[in-house]
Design a protein that fits this description.
Blueprint lengths: L2 H24 L4 E4 L5 E3 H17 L4 E4 L11 E9 L1 H5 L6 E8 L2 E9 L4 E6 L3 E4 L5 H9 L7 E5 L8 H17 L2 E4 L6 H6 L5 E4 L6 H13 L3 E7 L2 E7 L1 H29 L1
Parallel strand pairs: 3-4, 9-10, 9-11
Antiparallel strand pairs: 1-2, 4-5, 5-6, 6-7, 7-8, 11-13, 12-13
Length: 282
């Protein structure tokens, strides 16, 4: 990864985000592509994606590009850029300022560079394996220190993603809803994560202590590089299997231990009840 070229791409992406903000404020766009009944792209999505892709091709001519809105490229290539100029187009098109611009590079299926921008605030996070930077971000240093050292779950802000819960069997749905109910009882705040692309900004504000993905369906480009940043800062990432579903969590190890205890308590409660019943009958 060429340092100067990457920074040039960061600056170019910031200019693109300014154009996106201008289009949002002027409401000067239209829907041009319906992907399905609920998902769509605007002309701004496609126009900005083309401009970013052209810049990447200029700076890194031997890299491939995986388009969010337009034609897919060679997904077996060694270096692939993923571009999503407006992550959460639904909010953008509804005139709700809750969207980001996301660009990331993977090499041999590992995240090696990432650019995330909030067009409405100018906040920017960019990262490679050699350096990372939070720009125009309101750091809450004391809160972040607390997150690193805190072991009291009752003080924690925990987010969870249940995007694919409706696809699960009824029994599994009930188990996860029971887990979420217990989590809400034992934490300071537990919230459903509606936009994982904002995780980096929530973290630096001190309002995101742990993240649990029920079915590990969060898009990789939303958190891959952010996950890598946190692991460099000695946070922990865990995967665990429950009834055939792969689940994912990241953060302070002491908080994760307690979250995992809640999960185990919910899942093994039925087994414990059976054992207790057997004991009473003996």
């Amino acid at each position: 990864m060429n340092y100067e070229k990457f920074l040039e791409l960061v600056k170019f992406s910031e200019k693109i985000s300014e154009q996106i903000k201008k289009s949002y404020l002027e409401k000067s766009f239209k829907i041009v592509n319906w992907k399905d009944e609920c998902d769509f792209a605007t002309e701004i999505d496609e126009k900005m994606e083309i401009q970013i892709a052209e810049k990447i091709s200029e700076l890194f001519p031997d890299h491939w590009i995986d388009w969010e809105e337009l034609t897919k490229k060679n997904l077996d290539a060694e270096n692939i850029w993923y571009i999503d100029p407006i992550d959460w187009t639904k909010y953008f098109a509804s005139w709700l300022p809750l969207f980001t611009s996301s660009i990331w590079l993977r090499k041999n299926w590992q995240a090696v560079a990432w650019i995330l921008i909030n067009p409405m605030t100018g906040e920017c996070v960019y990262w490679t394996k050699w350096f990372w930077c939070f720009k125009n971000v309101n750091w809450k240093t004391e809160k972040l220190k607390n997150i690193e050292t805190e072991d009291d779950l009752s003080k924690a802000f925990v987010y969870f993603d249940t995007t694919w819960l409706h696809w699960a069997k009824e029994k599994l749905q009930k188990k996860w809803l029971e887990f979420i109910s217990e989590l809400m009882k034992k934490t300071y705040r537990s919230r459903n994560l509606w936009a994982s692309c904002f995780m980096a900004f929530w973290w630096v504000s001190g309002h995101l202590w742990a993240f649990v993905d029920v079915f590990w369906k969060t898009k990789a480009q939303d958190i891959a590089a952010f996950s890598a940043i946190l692991q460099e800062l000695w946070y922990e990432e865990r995967f665990f299997e429950l009834e055939g579903a792969r689940n994912y969590a990241i953060w302070n190890a002491r908080i994760l231990d307690q979250i995992e205890e809640i999960i185990e308590g919910v899942w093994w409660k039925d087994l414990k009840a059976i054992k207790d019943k057997i004991k009473k009958s003996i």
